[in-house]
Amino acid sequence: MKYTLILLSALVLFGSCEQEFKKKVTDKKDYDKFLDTEPIQTTSKNFELWNSKIRQDSMQLTSFGVVAGEYHRYFEGSGDIAYLKMAEQALKRAVDIAAIGRSGYYRALARNYISQHRFKEALEWANAARAIGSGKKGSQNLLFDVHMELGNYTKAQKYLDSTKNMSDFDYLIRLAKWNDHKGDLDTTIKLMEKATKIAENSKNESLLLWSYTNLGDYYGHAGRINDSYRHYLKALGLDAKNGYAKKGIAWIVFSHEKNPIEALRIMNAVTKTHKTPDYYLLKSEIAAYMNNDTERLFNLDMYYKLVDDARYGSMYNMYNISLLLDDTRLYTKALELSRKEVNNRSTPEAYSYLAYSYFKNGNIKDAKKIVDEHIAGQTFEPGILLQIAQIYKASGEKSKVQEIKKELQGAVYELGPSSKEIIRIL
Predict the structure, then answer these.
(1) Looking at the record's lineage, which domain of life comes first (predicted)?
(2) DSSP character string of 178-233
């Protein structure tokens, strides 16, 4: 009997270890060399040369375009909003003086506004670029992107269809995004894999970097964690400073491997060189999982200090609403900000925060009405589905809650380990 118990205990232990072994995907040896990097260089001899040609009365059109491109690169590499705003100023000056090539500068300014979440202004410049006529394909791609951000999906599909070419990288990545919007993840991944092959054949590093990080994300959504990890490493092989890929690896370590200490170590290295506000929110989430309230509050404070900068505008509205609802519990303020965000872009995600704000304020009727009219069946994002399920539960829609619960049980990796208990009690 004693021998049987020992044997059973050994089998349980072995099974547990085997399960942990199967869960283990990452290896410090793979990514440690990428963690100890210097901040991105935000100047160069070439940049200084072009920048020196810009004066208050300058008509050096090329200079403004080059400088704006460098500023945008500095923004992506550092997370410093100042560079995105400087890129905007350079592009606005280029737009003012351009006699030829105006549509290209219009598109560049529109993309800058997309980065700033100034979607309605982006649409104005995209339409202006299309009206000029030159660079028609670029304008059609841009209009698809803007209308997707605004939630104008019928118009977005029209522009997508107008550029159909299954051998074209730009078309394939947008078709992938469209299928992801419809909830067809398998097709999304196949299209992104095809686009990535085109990028690899072109040997264009910026396209490759974009492809590898996006594939990393999609593989993660599909539960293909090994593939996700491998593609984040590929991205770091091209750009050792890439904070987004490091964040992706940190998420695997945290959500899949349940190793918050190592995940926090990775993110601490990232935030030494990147000041992207939402990186601090991830650190706060990891600290909360560790029951380290001091670390959690420190990182929340860092986030708030960064987004308090008025130059961020609406860029972090969604994150701010989430914090108001779940952390500070300022439900009335969350409702006000949610209304502003819906006015900024009428996407299912924006409406989900409006509905959830009504829900938290105790207005179940209006919350459910928004879900039924603007969200249900229009998105497959796990975070939104979790909010919908809670609203349906409060409305007594038990069958709908159970349907969503089945979906969510396969989305714990995306939502984070703390979501498991929330889903269980739905």
Answers:
(1) Bacteria
(2) HHHHHT-HHHHHHHHHHHHHHHHHHT-HHHHHHHHHHHHHHHHHTT-HHHHHHHHH
